[in-house]
Amino acid sequence: MTGKKKTKWNATRVMMAAKCFRTIAVKLRSVYPARAMRKKMLVAADIDRSLVEAAESDGRFEVRVQPVRSEEDLLAALGDAEILVTRAYNRVSRRVIEAATGLRLIAQGTSGTDNIDGGAARERGVAIISLPGENANAVAEMVIGYILALTRSVPFYTAEVASGRWPREDCATRHEMSHFHLGIAGLGQVGWRVARLAAAFEMRVIAFDPYLEEEDFEARGATRAASLSELITVADILTLHVPLTAETRRMIGEPEIEAMRPGTILINAARGEVIDQNAALAALKTNHLGGLAMDVFDLEPPTAALPSDPRLILTPHVAGCTHECRTAIGAKLYARIAEYYATTR
Q: Is the same domain home to 182 and 269?
C-alpha cells in the first residue's frame, strides 16, 4: 500500500470512528443527560438507602444526601435543588419554599404532610408526593403493643421485679383485651388496621370518622359512633388516628378528657398537636386516666420534663418505623418520583 493510499484509508477509519462515537454519544445523552441537565435532588432526611441507590443509578437525577433537622439548616442546604426528599420532622415552611427558587417537587415518605406549607407550595407550583398508609401496619402493631402493655401493667411489673419485688397479689384485677371497648378516632388506613388486629383479640370496636359512610364502618369491623363526644364516653381505650388539620388540632383537650370514663387509657400515635398534652398528663396524675401512651409530641423532641409513671409509655415517634416499612418506603418513594418525571417535563 502506498503512503498516499494508506493515509486516505486511515482518514476514512477516523471519520467512521468519529461518526460511530457521535451516534453513541447521542444515544447516551438521550438516556443519561449531561450532568448540568440532571435534576438536582436533595435528600434532607434519614431515608432508606434503596431510594438513594436507585436515584443515583437513574441518569435523570443528581443526588446529594444531607440530612438536616432545623429549618435554618434546610434553608442552607437546599441551594438550587429541584427535588426535596423529606420526613415529617423537616419543617418545609413558606420561608423555605419561597427561598428555594428551583424547587419543583417535595417527596415525603409519610402519610401526613402537615410539616409542609401546602399553600405556599401550590402558589409556587411545587408538587408534593407522599405515601399515605405505607406505615399503617407498623403503627397499628405498635398501638396493639401499647394496649397489651397498659392493660396488663407490663411497665409496672417490669420496674417492680427489677427492684427485687414480686407483686403477684393483684394480678387477677387485670383484664384480657376482650373485656374492653376500643374507641378509634379516625378509621383510615391506620385505624382500620387497628380495628382488624383488635378483632383478633375479640375487642368491641367503636369508631368515629365523619368522612366515612355507614357501610364503611361495617366493612372495617367497627360500630359507628355518631360523634366524637359519643365515642369518648363509651370507650375504655381511646386511640387517635387522624391527620393534623385545623379541625383536629386539640381535638382532645381538657373538656374531652374530663368527659372520658375514669380509668380510660388514651393513646396518641397520630400527631402531638391533636391532644392537649399537659391536660392528658394532669389527668394521669389525678388517676382520671388509667394509662397514657404517646409516640408523638406537641414539640419534638419534647423539652419539658416528663413524669416517671408506670402507666405512662413514651416513644420517640417510632410507631411507623420498622425495617420492612423503611425499606418499602425508600423503594416506593423513588418509584413515585420516577413516575412523576415520566409524565412531567
A: yes
Main-chain dihedrals φ then ψ at residue 188, nearest 5 degrees: -80, -150
Total domains in the fold of the chain: 2
Pairing assessment for the beta strands 181-185 and 204-208 based on DSSP bridges: parallel
Dist CA 187 CA 127 (whole Å): 27
| CATH code where residue 50 lies | 3.40.50.720
Supply the DSSP string of 256-325, one letter for each residue.
HHHHSPTTEEEEE-S-GGGB-HHHHHHHHHTTSEEEEEES--SSSS--S-----TTEEE-SS-TT--HHH
122-176 pLDDT per residue, tens = 999 999 999 988 999 999 999 999 999 999 999 999 999 999 999 999 999 999 9
Verify that 184 and 78 share a domain, yes or no: no
State the catalytic residues: 271, 300, 317
Q: Is residue 14 part of a domain?
A: no
Same domain? For 283 and 156 the reply is yes
Whole-model pTM? 0.84
For the stretch 91-99, contacts whose Cβ atoms lie closer than 8 Å and that sit 24 or more positions apart, written own/partner, are 91/115, 92/116, 92/117, 92/121, 93/117, 93/120, 94/119, 94/120, 95/71, 96/71, 97/121, 97/124, 97/126, 98/124, 99/75
Residue 28 placed within a domain:
no
Exposed / middle / buried, residue 166 (Cβ in 10 Å: 0-12, 13-18, 19+) = exposed
Q: Which residue range is the domain that position 115 belongs to?
A: 33-134+325-343
Give the whole-angstrom CA distance, residue 287 versus residue 280. 11
- 181: which residues sit within 8 A by CB, 6+ positions away? 203, 204, 205, 206, 234, 235, 236, 237
Asked if residue 241 belongs to a domain, the reply is: yes
Tell whether 193 and 212 lie within a shared domain.
Answer: yes
